[in-house]
Amino acid sequence: MNGAENPIYFAKSPDANGHRETVAEHLEKVARWAGTFGEETGQQNAARVAGQIHDFGKYSRAFQEVLVGTRHGVDHAFPGAVFLYRAGKERLRAIIEAVNGHHDGLRSLEAIKPQILENLRTDQVLRCPSGKDASLNGGEEYETAIRAFFRDFPRFSKTDLVMDKEAFSSQERRMLYTRMLFSCLVDADYCVSAAMAVEEPKAPSWDAAIQALNDYRLSLGRGSKANAGLNALRDRLFACCGEAGNGKAGLYTLTAPTGTGKTLALLNFALRQKKRRIIIVLPFLSLIEQTAREYAKILPDIFEDHSQREYDDEYREFSARWDPPFILTTSVRFFEALFRWKPGDCRKLHNIAGSVIVFDEAQSLPGSLTGATLRAVRALCERYGCSVVFSTATQPNFSALPNLEWQPVEICPWHSELYASLRRTRVKWRVQEPTPLETIAAEMAQLDRACCIVNLRKHAKRLFRHLKRLCPKDEVFFLTTDLCPEHRSAQIDCIRERLRAGLPCRVVSTQCIEAGVDLDFARMYRALAPLEAIIQAAGRCNRNGCLAEGGLVVVFVPEAAGRLYPSAAYGKGAMRVKEMLEDGEIDIHNPEHIAEYYRRLFRDARDDEKLTDAIARGSYEDVSQCYQLIDDRCVQVIVPYAGRRELFEEIQQELQRTQCVTPQLLQRAAPITVSVYDRDSCERFAEPLFLPARRGQPPRPSGYYILRPQYAHLYSEDMGLQWPEEEENGIIF
């Protein structure tokens, strides 16, 4: 700031070339890009205004003193919210909340209104909701800032401050509207502040991608080992999805059995919608790995955003913004972004608008979050120009949920015919009496190609140890989350090769094998579970329909002390199956039986009470804390998996050199990381890792541990991470 009459206000300290960006220059750039980002969300004007006002608090002596280093801890975002409140009160709620939170996170107008009124009432320095001092205090300082702002933006008018009424038809939609607006603002601010060369994305060549997809399917057909009838059904489903894709955008379901080629059929739908991007949302990392491998044979550029991805700087920026045309991500990354409150988490949201979103294996949503999740998905379709498909072999009957409007269009209305034609398995329900795991092991030992999926890791360990005593070591495999992701992938590749070669292969697993793993066994054992899990397990049995007599799925109740299920919700689903069996046999190939299961499952379903209350109060922070797709009680342990030993040693060396690890190194370590709940064992056998200190603060806990060198033997090549004398809690991550 210089000059007494008409001072120049600066937005930043001088750059490497000595250039100093003024507040006016910065606001103009951010307003332009925020408005551009808002075009797709239908918020162009509101986003432009938010960009123009967001750093209003930099028109202050306090902030200019920050730039020269004589002052610290100043909040320059809050005064922008105060300026907007003076101009339009509650009518400008969304812009006020977005501007106030663009550094610190979204807070409701109700939460900050007392400080807004206090800030206008007195010239005493106000402590803002962020915990910092307001850069402007009292009427006189605000009037000086307003004069400076209008000198820079003489055309700015209250008539610019128009809001969209329809968006506020419900509290959930109002909050999503604000998050979308917030996203436009923070992405524009980040891009301008980082001096990124933001460009309008080029329209993808969807026609070329459609041709590549058709060529790839032709090549698959020539090498297919599936029977002719199955291939004909796959062709019909593919064509059906293409026809729907040529139609209008909207909310769709695709219901089809496992093994009918849904992965490519869904891509056919998505490409033909010709939206600005395609987002494939999958519940499991194993699904992403397999889907990415297949799609990479068709599409040149696939962006993966998930916890196991190693990022360079460019890839990290893509992860923050989601502007590539084709994205594969996890349910956690996608859904939690819709309910977060921090700038970095919400930055990507505006790029979801105008997309095709495919939810594969859609049955995996937690019941207590389903209502809020589906209402957000409906809003994406109805308000933000998205086309959405929920695809699964076990389509949940979401319309049975209370207080939810859910009327999607089914892409494959003849799916009953599909199920009837694809009876590749028979089910033997052995649930009247518990079955010892020793009995299951003895039966598997007599078979060449068998798999058993159990609900708890402690059951998997017991069964695997029994089986090892009965079979040669190289014929038995263990697959649970005790193995790090890289190790699991290597085990699955080995299993796949043995099955292809016709060699004996017996697998003990938890749910991590149920979806996205294209293995094919003649016999499948499945511990009693929710019906969707049983059907998913059956999808790994006689997958290609090559067994004339069909595959056999044996559903049993393990004879074991303690609980049988990883959670109350999981146990509830299993009990609904048992309840249906009391009324007669369940036909897993009959869509009516599947629908009846979901009717029973959802009959007393309720949204999480804390989440419902947080939404009613409009508390963005509380909503974010309540909306958790995965249990956050676990910690991450980096393990010495032999296949990536050099990475483990690199982390050890960095730890010895600096006593800390960087976030980038932890990201690279994801493939050799195991999630565990036993913190006591972590403290005993592993060393906690810390992130580098900031501004003189002590190093920060990272939530990660690394197995101590003297305990490296606790990670084995056959069973992964096993604590000695572990008290197994049976929780599956």
UniProtKB/TrEMBL annotation:
Q: Where is the Helicase ATP-binding domain?
A: 243-413
Write down the superkingdom of origin: Bacteria
Domain named HD Cas3-type is located at: 16-191
GO-annotated biological processes: defense response to virus
Q: Which GO terms describe its molecular function?
A: ATP binding; ATP hydrolysis activity; DNA binding; endonuclease activity; helicase activity; metal ion binding
UniProt keywords (A-Z) are: Antiviral defense, ATP-binding, Endonuclease, Helicase, Hydrolase, Metal-binding, Nuclease, Nucleotide-binding
Report the Gene3D superfamilies cross-referenced here: 1.10.3210.30, P-loop containing nucleotide triphosphate hydrolases
Quick one: signal sequence residues? none
Q: Which PROSITE patterns match?
A: HD_CAS3, HELICASE_ATP_BIND_1
Q: What PANTHER family does this protein's entry cite?
A: ATP-DEPENDENT HELICASE LHR-RELATED (PTHR47962:SF5), ATP-DEPENDENT HELICASE LHR-RELATED-RELATED (PTHR47962)
Task: State the similarity comment.
Answer: In the central section; belongs to the CRISPR-associated helicase Cas3 family.
Full protein name: CRISPR-associated endonuclease Cas3
